[in-house]
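Re: that chain you flagged

S.,

Sorry for the slow reply, it's been a week of failed gels. I finally had a moment to sit down with the sequence you sent. For the record, here it is as I used it:
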Amino acid sequence: ETKYRQRYVDLIANEESRNTFIKRSQIIQSVRNFMVNEHYLEVETPMMHPIPGGATAKPFVTHHNALDIPLYLRIAPELYLKRCVVGGMERVFEVNRNFRNEGVDSSHSPEFAMLETYQAWGTYDDGAEMIKGLIQSVAREVFGSTTVTLADGTDYDLGGEWATMEMYPSLNEALQRKHPGQPEVTVDSTVEELKALADVVGVKVPENGGWGHGKLVEEIWEELCADQLYGPVFVRNFPVETSPLTRQHRTERGVTEKWDLYIRGFELATGYSELADPVIQRERLVAQSLEAANGDPEAMQLDEEFIQALEQGFPPCGGMGMGIDRLLTAMTGLGIRETITFPFIKTQGK
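Prediction finished late last night. Pasting the structure tokens below so you have them in one place:
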């Protein structure tokens, strides 16, 4: 802990730490270079929001004294970047800092850096190709190869084509392999059926409720399929309930066009075909607001100004977000606090 608390001494004494943060700077510059070469425009969005949105997360709350209103530190730049797309800026990105009032561990920090991108007339398929190209380009430019050497001395191959798996089919395949005879999970499975299955596979469901179909499916899937996520692998087609800003799948009922990219067992990036219909978007956010009213601290709220922006005409769009700190973790094998120059550390004596 001392090297995180006194990073200046760590940098003086430890050449490996200095090299890590040199690599971090080079990675961020390489990411920017790639995006600009792909004809994306870098923009800046607010860090204080009147309504938290763009992700399901618990926000930090502050107060504006002069206006006497609550404000929330940004949990994601999504709703503002989409406003740029509405305004005709058809390819935008931001390397931003986000704040989520949640746990601190080897893969989570309350303050973290993220790349978020939007491409008008694109889909989640375009986003998957783009993020693969970006990560492979960064690896070649910064590390000299798409095969990177991790902190424990092992090699990890980021090259070639990457595997894909769909959430419901992969869940059922793993379920039959590990718990044969259990009923198939579908988009029509009830909450009661999923709670019973969660008990079978060892997922602890909160007693106070709050977990609907989508949350239960994702938690069960993670428990059953975690051993398949060393990757790189795209996990596709998530439940509608847990993807309120994402477009309904073009051919499959009950799922959205969303993927998560897993590398070495953790989620590195996520991509969407964005929901463009303001009527459906309002319905989804109203449902989220009801979840928030029922006590879910991570649920989104209805943002009337964002709906108003969509009503001006939001084109079909592909969006993608990737953690910068986790990208460094993926390429070096270090923990997240070792990739952040000044990570959050509890005050001594408190």
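What I noticed first: The CA atoms of residues 289 and 297 lie 10 Å apart.

Talk soon,
D.
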